[in-house]
Amino acid sequence: MKYIHKNISKVIDLSFHCCTLKMKYIMVFITKLLIGDDGMTIFADQVNKTYQSGEVTVKALRNASLEIPDNKIVTILGPSGSGKSTLLNVIGGIDRYDSGSIKVGETVLEDLKERKLTDYRRKYVGFIFQQYNLIPTLTVEENVEVGLELSQQPLEMKDILQKVDMWDKKAKFPYQLSGGEQQRVAIARALIKNPEILLCDEPTGALDEETGKNILKLLKFVNEQYGTTVLIITHNQGIGEMAHYVIRMKSGEIVESYENEERLDPEQVTWS
Ligand SMILES: Nc1ncnc2c1ncn2[C@@H]1O[C@H](COP(=O)(O)OP(=O)(O)OP(=O)(O)O)[C@@H](O)[C@H]1O
């Protein structure tokens, strides 16, 4: 098996140099099939996280356990303060947890020292936030370049900007763009490094229904085209209807999780 892996890796290396982008993804897909690589399944086991704010102790996560298979869209719902962002942040390696275990692919996050955790985050995780967080003094293209970080297999700038329909506006600055356009740039910035996991904290929270649904379509496309696992935090219950899995949180606990038997297209979800 190792031999096959080694040789296929060589073929892939070669393909990265001489094939079209589409071919690269076909090659990666074939490799995954041949070597039985089940990708970046996310396991969380009894994870706890407490914040100390002055004299007040807040239990942001209470024994949170979950398993998210590779290549899925997952919606995380729950009232304000229920621990959704904390869960995303510990999975993404932005924050540490107090106890329990998180394993992403072969990486056990609590085993990583600070530098390795940063490497994990840079290599495997892309983030999108409600407030796009673009750098105002940089153009669209320069903002997306920021996302490259330590990437070993980045996507091509032109390809990704075309995918989010921002190639024609690559020289514009954030203040010259609508909210939806800024979010598309933020998605391109998160995607350019070709992350395994895309963590989205209220990605449509600042957008109207039509623009928000366009962003959801883009996230669905990213999941299907690149095989990226997409976790979406939202207060909009309807967004759960397009996901493979839905997780509900309350007071730091995961109180419900289920798989959707049928998924709706982003245009069909109930907007609230
Ligand atoms: N850095 C922090 N310091 C202190 N308390 C924090 C910190 N971050 C989060 N908390 C607290 O932890 C709890 C969970 O917060 P979290 O942001 O994860 O919830 P959430 O479900 O994402 O909320 P929202 O939907 O409002 O974004 C809240 O009570 C919050 O006030």
TrEMBL record:
<dbReference type="GO" id="GO:0016887">
    <property type="term" value="F:ATP hydrolysis activity"/>
</dbReference>
<keyword id="KW-0813">Transport</keyword>
<protein>
    <submittedName>
        <fullName>Putative ABC transport system ATP-binding protein</fullName>
    </submittedName>
</protein>
<keyword id="KW-0067">ATP-binding</keyword>
<comment type="similarity">
    <text>Belongs to the ABC transporter superfamily.</text>
</comment>
<dbReference type="InterPro" id="IPR027417">
    <property type="entry name" value="P-loop_NTPase"/>
</dbReference>
<dbReference type="InterPro" id="IPR017871">
    <property type="entry name" value="ABC_transporter-like_CS"/>
</dbReference>
<dbReference type="InterPro" id="IPR003593">
    <property type="entry name" value="AAA+_ATPase"/>
</dbReference>
<dbReference type="GO" id="GO:0022857">
    <property type="term" value="F:transmembrane transporter activity"/>
</dbReference>
<dbReference type="InterPro" id="IPR003439">
    <property type="entry name" value="ABC_transporter-like_ATP-bd"/>
</dbReference>
<dbReference type="GO" id="GO:0098796">
    <property type="term" value="C:membrane protein complex"/>
</dbReference>
<dbReference type="InterPro" id="IPR017911">
    <property type="entry name" value="MacB-like_ATP-bd"/>
</dbReference>
<keyword id="KW-0547">Nucleotide-binding</keyword>
<dbReference type="Pfam" id="PF00005">
    <property type="entry name" value="ABC_tran"/>
</dbReference>
<feature type="domain" description="ABC transporter">
    <location>
        <begin position="42"/>
        <end position="272"/>
    </location>
</feature>
<dbReference type="GO" id="GO:0005524">
    <property type="term" value="F:ATP binding"/>
</dbReference>
